[in-house]
Every structure is written in structure tokens, then in C-alpha cells.
């Protein structure tokens, strides 16, 4: 009997041990950052809070090889992806659909906006210095405004969340703001925060943080788009509600004045200027490979690497036993847009253009933008003739080769005479001063100040290495009309800002996509011999429908939020 | 002590009594007080080797005419003398000799003669914490016993279950040595695996050490598991020691194995020709793109005139062998006495891989596998009231593979066409190109090697004390288990350069590296388990049977550096039966885990179940129905739980984001970002389960049957809410939202006939698993066919294919496709809403929505020492979605393989007979979207296992003191009947993983 009582007691104590089991560990992960630790009320330096701010920057679009390894511009008449049937070509083939949009950015933008709002909501807990508090909050607000901008150019007006950090049970049936409201929101944010941001230039260690210049540059960009034909009353929509969502319902020429004013405000910041070092096009090249210079206003910062060189160099180059990919094939259309060194377009009889030597005497920026046959790279001339090293016409040699006779040279380091790549800075320029000049030129020209516009273009051409010519007009005709100047500015914008994610949006806001994206995309077929023979051939026939002026809001989002109105045509 | 004294007194009394009865007349005993002067009464109990009593056995005292028969409880009494030998015999069992000793009461175990026919009286049902006699069970269960398990030459017991149990579908998706894993589907769920009462998940150990594998399917069987109960269980019971002379068993087996179907790539000529055709179809410029193969190349591929510049390589053949082997050696011994019983076994498996190797390597690069498994189960009667035991499993598994890993070689095979490169160039260097630097031959033999070491130990210790003095039938039990698992890999890999001929020179890609050594722990986990129970087992007045247990337990699992996951709780079961006629069984679990708010609190739930049973055959009115020997109606209803709390998902946290860069120097900065939104309301998933069954046995137990119906409602299923808009700016957490129903029928029937010479049986089981989404929090969808609610769980959705476009007119008149201009030979989709546009509104359920139907058929014959048995496994309403690298041509931006199936593509000449759309280069946005076109009927029947054996006659082997010598041959995955879509592929492993193997196994088993 005694024994069995003993065993029963053992049983009972076992019960106690198990239910109240001794704990040897923490009860939940102590290594995790909670809100309290991230926004630590005891950390005067805000070390962890800064990590959270850093994170918001990672939602910025990177630009290089961003759309499934292709440039967004490979979806325009400027280039084709070298690979066949890659997704970015859906834009030029007109095969975008609600569920098949290569670059929706919708989710990324709202994820970024939430991170900014969380930061703004909680940063006040961290006892950082007043200066840091001012900078950091302004940076988060700038980034949030920038994400809205990325949405605005794709979709038009979108749901504006303000400072709200949505919770699990908050109503997410939020309607779209109109185009005008979204523009106003972004512009107002830029205006409010610009003076709270760091003045330019930022110190070396802080380079890459959004500065005052970035906020004003964003304002310039947003206002430029808002004043442009597609958005300034020129929407293609038949439904008035939808038109108001994707643009101003009515045109208003004074919107150009706001652009010019914003540029004036930008120029008043000082510091920013074109990089003019060395012999052209060295200055132009250096803009992209020097992390910090007077021209870059804001960039998506990257680590140093040579991956980008491997991706873009012509396929015949095998560097350190790795063959280059040559992913991008710039088009003949783009090459033709580069004037001669004298600034005259190749179509001008007086330009000196020779179709049998098409790359001789051209705008130096051509050499810095595309690889063409005969350009020197890694100590050898590029061979893009049929069967040449860089266009071998042999699927066992290279499954990828240029479709146009060109490869992308822009943004690459200086490896003309090297034998191997070294790591390079590959920050993607989001805003750079050249764009400000082009924006100004466009606004001034629209406002009738043609010669003021010419002056801005001349600055770019001079830096590019165009010869000044008689009267230092850099190839611009004296007495050029406003219409002619408009075309010239657009062309200058195309070549100066090629592959910087401008062309794709510019042809839309100018409402010329229906025209340029329904015309053949051409390439150069070169037959080997002495001399080489050049033949321009059609390599793609793009298709453009009016609905492609605005991106479709992702299908799932429309389903999940009954208040969202889809853009017209989708 | 008191007991021993009493026994001694009794012994002396008997002694006196027997000697004084010397003069009693009529007794045939010659001279009891001389040769047999100690003649006394012995009481024995005869069991079979499953510990069930054997009735009707004949007991004979050697040298006398004295005989006795065992009664219904297996008990006999006989008068004999110490030192006498008795022989126990019964048809179907081997004769057993036993020498009487001083113990007047003892038990004897009989061994079955080797027969393939299933037992008439199956063993008691193994519930997680108790065993229930088969006729009193009300829970849904099925079991497979050792003699069937060991017929399959596999390393995972799961693969030996195929086709043998109703309700359990097994898939074998790989034949990788050491991981020929099966996956399980038990009434639509993945069951937990319980080894000797501990949830471990162990599936690979010595099959010979397994006594039985039981599946538990309903709430009544699983309620005591509480939050681990919803998915059902596979309960493995290992062999324990039995009282009796030590029996040693040695089995030696060797099996050649061949890979079953593997996707067949086209040859170089076909590849190049199809490649050009795909380009032409996509309108890709032949002059400019540089992607077309020239006529010279096509000719060279066809004629094999220049195998170095125009190679045509069957890489599969280059690197794999047709045959590999599986050798298995098992030595076990089992025995015991009144004090201790033991079962000890050692097994060694040595399985070779199917890669070719080269002698020039001083190391092995094949994917070999070796395992060593030790099992020691010892039960000890410490005192008459206190018993204890230690069950121990030790497992060592050593695997080897090429440096780049077997899986990356298999992936390479899926994407490397026949013309990619010659294995070796003309100058002897490794072939390759910019695109294909993965020389598969070099990956196999020249990429170094890696070795994986796995160590597992599972220890189970228990103490059980009867508390009869408090209350007869009461006992208490304590159990502690530990399971430790470690997997370590040592890498000794090296990189290699490949060379492509470029005119007179060779272009190098990649670099020849030196061997790089490293090691890493793949996983390291520890589980400790404690259990205390109080039980009561008693039949009162022969009428009221009570079986009750309450227990507390704690299951504490740590994986790597994660915080322990601990389930604690109490549970219990009370079963009552009246005269074995009416049964009621109530069980419950109250437990939960420590991953809940706030601060790792344990959240527990209450999971009750009730079962009822009626043994109709016990009723008086059934006495008039003599051909029915058993008939039971039973059912259960209960609530079970399933704990899937994630890793502290209620806890809002920030985690590392991608790095970012500031400044003009090169350094990066840390970023942290908000994790998936926390779910503060997370709780366990639940299921309400109903099970109803009827089982019986008729015609002198020759025909046995069982039918069950189940209807299970799973609710609070974790899933993302339907309105998970990205406007939130973060991922929505899983919430307890979903509701699904699973339902189905299971039936089994066995016919067996036994005579002394010939015994045979045929058995069949059929099962259905149907399901329906009851609630999935769907947002409003414009059309009913887009809704998942009401459809089977995990129903595939896509476009409904209506064949291929055969004429331009058909294209012109059919609905247009958003973002695509169809051409001849493209897949035509049904315009469900008839709006003239094929878009997301036309996506509907595709393929069958019928319940899954699977079945198994077993047959067996035993005749004069020969035995033959076979198991067929089959499945219907089963579909495979054939898509991706392993089925499409040129899927990866135009790179990738082309398969023999692609030769059936649409061309103008093969318009009507096309079995594949027109070829395209890279991803085709029309043809490669999810659609019914890619669904294949994957119904198949497989001769999963067959065995023939011969047991040498006793007359022969008895002389050399052997009990059994049995030679056997068995096979695994012997024959498969599938639809023609799987002529190049295996119906279970059709996607080009490690092929499932066919084994033909030869072995011998010796027992002495």
C-alpha cells in the first residue's frame, strides 16, 4: 500500500513537472528587433532606427537590367532585348495584359510607402539629434513622394494613404485620387520637405541620401509630366471619370510656367552642373562611373561590381573565362538620332553623314552610348558584322547576340584598352542635372522662349563634344521655330538620357508612342569585306494601342478593392 | 515475499499429495514415486508470436500418452514431471518442444508456419497510448504486419505500405539511395508518424524490427493527441522480446536495381531541327538572329560526321549505369525468460548509386548509401508489480555523392540538349560552351565528392507499476523518450574548366579549381518526451469491461538554434463495454504549444471524441445465423486539432532587408524591415470528424470485410485572407479562416481458405478521398466558375483547352486572346463568358473534380513450403500537370531541352495527330499559361511487390538444428500500367528527378 501511494505521488509530481516545465530558454526570440528596439527610446545615435531608414531606399527602382534583366528602354524604339521573347518586349509587341505586365511596380511602391509611414510614425520615439530627426523624417517623406511618383507615371492617380500605417483590420477599399490630386500631393510634399533635407552637396559619407536637390528635381519632373500633352488635357479616355484619374481633364498652358519656375528654384540651389572633365565624351562617361559628381542629383546606390559590364559587353568578349552576355541591342533608330559631331542631324544634307561609314564624325555621345562595329573595347575592335566575333550567327557559339548590330555601351567603365574588368560604381541615376536642363528647355520652348531653350541645349551639346560651329550654335539653326525646337529638344532628350528610363515615359507623355511604336525598329546588317557593306534592316515591327499610354492596375488589386477604377481599355 | 512463501508451501503440498496418491487405482502412470515420483500439475498458456492466446492446440507429454488441449484463453493444465518434454502442436504453427522445469505455470509462444495468408485474428489495435482488442475497437484503423513489410526491398517503411491499406495513399517520387521516400496521404492529410508512442517522423529503419504499422484515421483514435491529432497517424510498433528460447534470425538479401522511366531527350539532329522550327514559328529573323542551325550543322548532326564540332550526346547514358545494387544484412535475436525479454537486431544496408565512376579518382563519386541500424528492446520484470523497459534505436546513415550534388546533375540533364558539347574534346579536354559550362560527365566524376553523415538515436524508457493493492486493475506508468538527429555534410568539391573549339584553338570557360574542403551541419534536432499515466483495465463480473487511462505528457522539440517547440497537456480515454457487445469509448486531449501570445505562452485546446460500437454477432438473435462469425457496427465523432503556429508569428518584428549603399566608399549599410504582419489572433486549426464502419467475418472466417465512411470538416485553417490587397504595403499573415471538407468511402474484403497443404487468400481494398472547399474567404469574382469555394481542395484552375487551332478561319472566328495573336497550332481556349475575349475571366476548374480513387489488391498462396504473394497498387482520378523544363521544348528563353513528346508537335503536316502545340521559342504566353491542355491522365496500376519463397522442409534442416531456412526472391515496382503519356516516364516520378527503381531481390532467411 505504501508503495502504491509512493507511485501515485510520483505520478502527481510528474504531472506538476510537465505542466510547469522548467524553462531553460527565453520564451520568444530575443534576437528579433521589435518596434521598441528599432525605435529605441534610449539610443541617441538611432543606430537601429537608421537601419530602418536605409531600408526604405531599397525600394527605389534600380534601372539597370531591372525588368527581367532588361532595360525598360528595351521596350521602346530605342532598343530591343538581345534575347528573344523576354518580358520587356511585351511593351513593344503590345502583349501586355492585366496579369502580364512586366513592370507593374504597384506592390513595390506600396510596400515602400508603408515602410516610410512606419518610419515616420515611430521615429519620434528615438532621441536622435534635432538635425538628424529633421533630415531623416524629410528623407522618408521624399522617398514616399518618389514612390507615388513611380505609381503616377504608370497608372495616373492612385490611392493616397497619407501618414496612415494600415493595420490588419483596417478598410483597404480606398479609392484612387485623381491625377491632379496625386500631382498636388507629391509637389506639396516636395515643397514642404525640401528645406528640411540636407543641402547639396552632401558630405562624402552621406552621399546617396536624398538631398534638397532631389526633392526639387522630383518636383520638376512631376510638373513636367503634368504639363505634357498626354496629361495636360490630352488624355485618350472617353470616360470623363477615367480621364480625370489619368490626367488633367482640360489643358492649361500655364502648367509649363510651373515647370520653368521649379527649374529656376532648382538652379538657385547652386552646386549642380554638368561634368565637363577631359576630352568628350569623357565627361559624359564619368557622370555614370564616378559615385559623386556635380551632375548626379539622386541615384539608386549600388555596390561596386563588374556584373553590369559582363551583362552588356558584346558577346565575343570572354573576360576571365566568362563570356559577356550582350543583353541589350540598341536600335538603328536610336543611332540615327545622334547628330553628327557638327550637331546637324544625319538626315541633313549638310551634315556630312556618309552611309558607307555611318559611325564616322558622329556626336561623341554615340561612342559612349552604344557599341558599334569598329569601336574599340578591351583592346579589340567590336565586330558586329555577320559572322564576326560579336555576332557569330552560330547558336552553339552564342545563344544571345545583337539583334540590331549594336550593344549597349552607356554606364560601363573605361575598358577600351584593358584586358579585364575591374569593379565599377554602378549607381543608377534617378535625377541628374542634364535632365533639369532638358526639362527647362522643353518648358521654355513651350512658353515661347525658344532662344532660352536653345541656350540650355547648347550647354549639353558643348559638354557632349559637339563642335561650336558658326555663331556657337552647336548645329542649331539660327531662327529655329518653336516646333522645330520642340523636335530638337525631344531628340536631345532621347540621346542624352538614353537608357535612363526616360524614353519609355517620354514617348507616352508626348503622345507620340502611337506613332513611334507603330513604326519599324531597325538594325544595321553589316557584311564583311573590304569595304564593309552596311544595310539598314527592319528587326521588329512594334505594336502600340492607346491603352498602353497607361499601365493596367493589376487584376488582383481590382478584385480585392472594389473602389479601384481600372484604366480605360484594360 | 509473502507470495513466494505461499508458492513454496503450495509446491510442498502438491509434492506430498502426489506421492500419497501412489496407491490410487486406475491411473496409467507407472511409478510416480520412482521415475515420476514428482509428477505434478503444470499450467501453461500458449500464445502466438503476436501474444494472442492460441486455443485448440494439442499438448502432448513425450514418452507418455498424456495429452491436453488449450482452452479459449490458450490455457492448458497437464500432469507431468520436471524434466519431461512436452510438444505443443496446432495446424498453421510449428511444433514447439518445451522442457518442464520447476515453474508450474509458464507461457509458451508458438511460431506460425511460414504462410502468406493473413491472420484470422488480427492483433490488438495499437492506439497511441493503449491497445484495444480488435473486437472491442470502435476507432478506424488498419494495420500491416512484419511478414508483409519485409517483402519489399526498400529502406523506408512507407514504401512497403503501398497498396496495402485502405485510406492511405503513398507516392514514391524518388529512387535516390537512402531517400527513396514515400509521401503519404491519409484521408487527404499528411499523418504524423509515431514510433513506439513518440511522434518522431522516423521512416527509415530496419523493416525487420517492425512488428506492425497501424494507420489511425478517425477522431476517436486520435483525440488523445490533441493539437497533433487532425491529420491521423501512422503508428509503428517495434518487435519486443518474448518469453522462450532465444531465436536467432539471419537474413541476407541482394537486389539488382534498374531505374524506371526517365524523360527521353531528342537527339542532336532532332533538337536542331525543332529549334529551327520553333524560331520559324515565332517569326524570328533567320538572317539576323544568329539562332538558326545551318544546313551544314543539321547534316553533321544527322550524319555524326564531326562529333567534336557537332556532338550528339546522350548524357543520360554517358553518366548512368543500367544497374546498381541494394544489399541488406539483418541479424536479430529474440527471447526471454520470466525476468527479462529482449529483441535485438542489427541491420546493414549497402546501396550503390547509378552514376558511372572512373578509376582515376582515388575517391568514390557515386551516390552510394550505407546504413547501420541497431535496435535493442528489453523489457524487465523488476518485481512482480514493477516492470520496465528500454527500447533503443541507433541509426547511422552514410551517403556519398558527386561534388556538385546528385540533384544538380539531374537538373543539368533536364536542361542540356544533346548537341551542347562533346563530353571530351578532340584534344581530351572537357567539352563545354558559354551556355553549357556544366559538363555533366565532369560534374559526375570530376567535381570532387561530398559525404553526408546522419546519426539518429531514439531511446524509450518506461516503468510500469501495477496498483492492484489499491484497486485491482489500476496501474501507473512513466515514460521518457529522447530522439536526437544530426546530419553533417563534408564537401570536397572542385571546379573544372570546359573548352569550346574555336577554329584551331580552344576557348576556356570556367576555371580548374583545386579541391575545396568544408563541412556543415544540415540539421541538428533534439526531442525529449515525458509521459506519466494512470490506467485502469478490468473486467468486472465478466460483464463490465473498463479500460481507462489518463496521462500528462510533454513533447519538447528543438531544431537548430530555434527556440524549443513544446507541446504539453493532459489527455485521457475511458472505454467501457458490456459483455463485449456494446462499446462506448470517450477520449480527449487538452494540450497545446508554446508559440502563442503573449511572450511564448502555451495555448491549449480541448479535443474530445466519442466512439460507439455494437458487436451484433454477440446478440442472442444472431445465434441462428451460424455463418456469421463476427459483425460489428461502429462509429465515432470528435474534434481534433492541428497546431501550426509558425515561428512566433504573433510577434511583430523587423528583420534584415537587402543591403544598401551610401557614400563614396565601397561599404554597404545594414537595413531592417518590418516582417510579415503579425497575427495576434493565431490559434490552432481544428477538424470535426465523423467515421462510421461495419466490419464482419462470415463463412467460417473465410470471408472478411470492412466498410467505412468518413466525413471530416476542417476549420480555422490558416490562410491569407481573400482581400489581401497590396495597398496594405506588407504581406498579410495567415489567419484561421478556411473551412474544407474531406469525405470518402473505404472498403476491404478478404477471402482466405486454408487446409493443411494449401492456403491461399485474395484481398482487395478501395478508398476514395473527396474534398470540398467550404470557405476560402474569396473576394467577389465576376463569374461562378472562377470561384474556388465549392470546388475540391487544391483544385487546379486554368483555361479550358479546346484543342489546337487548325485553320485561320478558326482563329478569326474564335474569341481573341488578350495580348496575343494566335497562330495555327496554338492552344485554343474556351471563352466561358462568351465576351469574345480570352482573359482571366475564362479561368475555371480544370481537370477532374472527382474524388481520388485508389486501391490495392493482394494475393498469396502457400503450398508445401512454397509461398507466392503479390500486391498491386492502383489509382484513378489522378492527374499530372506536365509543364516546365521536364516537358516543354526550349522553355528557358529558348534554351533547355526538347523531349521525345515534343516530336508530336503541331505542324501543317501533323495537324490532326498533334499531341503538342506548335513549337515556340522560349516562354509562349498563350500556350504555357495554366490550362487543361497540360493535364494528363495519370491513372496507373503497379505490381508494387511480388514474392516467391521456399521454406526447406523441417526433416532436412532439423538435423542441422535449424528452425527455418527460407529462400526467397521478391521484386519491387515490377510492372506498371499507365497511360501512353507516361511511356517515357514513370507515372509517379514523371518530372525527371532521381528515377524510381525497379528491384529484383534475392535472399535467404535462416532461423535457429
Q: How would you sum up this structure, described in words?
A:
- The complex is a heterodimer of chains A (570) and B (1008).
- Chain A has 570 residues and is mainly alpha-helical.
- Chain A is built from 20 helices and 14 strands.
- In chain A, the strands form seven sheets. In chain A, strands 1-6 form a two-stranded antiparallel ribbon. In chain A, strands 2-12 form a two-stranded antiparallel ribbon. In chain A, strands 3-11 form a two-stranded antiparallel sheet.
- In chain A, strand 4 (318-319) and strand 5 (322-323) form a beta hairpin.
- The longest helix of chain A has 26 residues, at 130-155.
- Chain B is mainly β and 1008 residues long.
- Chain B has ten helices and 52 strands.
- In chain B, a hairpin with a 5-residue loop joins strand 2 and strand 3 (67-69).
- In chain B, helix 4 (268-281) packs antiparallel against helix 5.
